[in-house]
Amino acid sequence: MSLKVYIGGKLFDKADAKISVYDHGLLYGDGVFEGIRSYAGRVFRLREHVDRLYDSARSIHLEIPMTRADMSQAVVDTLAANKLKDAYIRLIVTRGAGSLGLDPRKTTDPQVIIITDTISLYPAELYEHGLKIITAGTMRNHPSALNPRVKSLNYLNSILAKIEGTNAGCLEALMLNHKGEVAECTGDNIFAVRRGALHTPSIDAGILEGITRDAVIELARKAGIAVFERAMDRHDIYTADECFLTGTAAEVIPVVECDGRPIGLGKPGPITLDLRERFHALVRSES
Question: How far is residue 163 from each of residues 90, 114, 130, 134, 279, measured CA to CA in Å?
């Protein structure tokens, strides 16, 4: 069966899912998106994702042509139409088609696109043995240039850092902010475990406020693990007892090496593995 893609209120076969080449989402990366997961046919924290999508849109003066309730229902309906249970959902809103110029006032008909498919971001063995990362030379976008809490369609900053990582034989790369502090990886938030406590960069480090990140912080605190959101540098990663990344697609994945330095014992640690299991239990309970 061909996957169906939602565009502007209608479902199209994947091969026929098209928008205008004059859409400012394509021409200028002018739009916003969310990556969402479903487990056992139920969407994980859909309301939080939809709220963040609308917040991103408001921040860039983009009016989404449907209500939040209708958007949520469209996600559920598209998932059902594709008969997918455990899936990745890409929710996209573009500025719409316009002229060959930056002026958004010359665009019309913002496009709402919903893609539902399967995803496997990392090989299964990396969840068991851990991920190796490097620090990218590409700096995280300055928060005064583009607020990192806006999940925009322009991901070139992260893509350039990702290329540095893959060229070095790593599937992820750590990005620093304009102060040289640890921000996040190209697609995931980062946590370090030190003396039984969790440490992660705070929002003002220029990071995306990840929904999986928030869920893991909640789980840790419920388990009695102290969590510190603070300014961090690479020394904090190098000298951590454990390290892991969180993200919608990645979920919780251990990091065992950074810039050639083994982290802790060089294998996934107990707190990482415990939080990963707690996260899996959470998504099952909310599904």
Answer: 22, 27, 20, 11, 29
pTM of the model: 0.95
Q: Which residues are catalytically annotated?
A: 151
Calculated CA dihedral for residues 226, 228, 234, 240, nearest 10 degrees: 0
What is the SS3 assignment for 133?
strand
Rounded CA separation 92/74 (Å): 12
Task: Give the whole-angstrom CA distance, residue 128 versus residue 268.
Answer: 7
Judged against a pLDDT cut of 90, whether residue 120 lies above it is answered with no
Which residue carries 């921000």 as its tokens? 183
Token pair in block for residue 259: 């810039």
Structure tokens at 191: 């946590």
Question: What are 43-95's pLDDT values in tens digits?
Answer: 999 999 999 999 999 999 999 999 999 999 999 999 999 999 999 999 999 99
Among 263, 262, 112, 285, which Cα is nearest to 193's? 263
Give the ranges where the chain is alpha helix by DSSP (H).
24-28, 46-59, 68-81, 124-129, 156-167, 211-222, 234-238, 270-285
Q: Which letter does DSSP use for residue 2 in this model?
A: P
Long-range contacts of the stretch 15-18 (C-beta < 8 A, 24+): 17/113, 17/115
52 phi and psi angles, rounded to 5 deg: -65, -35
Model confidence at 119, pLDDT cuts 50, 70, 90, reads confident
Question: Which phi and psi angles does 286 have, rounded to 5°?
Answer: -90, 0
Q: Which residue has the tokens 């139409």?
A: 81
**Could you tell me the two tokens for 215?**
């869920």
Sheet holding 4-7, edge to edge: 10-13, 4-7, 112-117, 87-94, 31-39, 42-43
Its sign, for the CA torsion 99, 109, 45, 51, is: positive
Task: Output the pLDDT for position 287.
Answer: 58
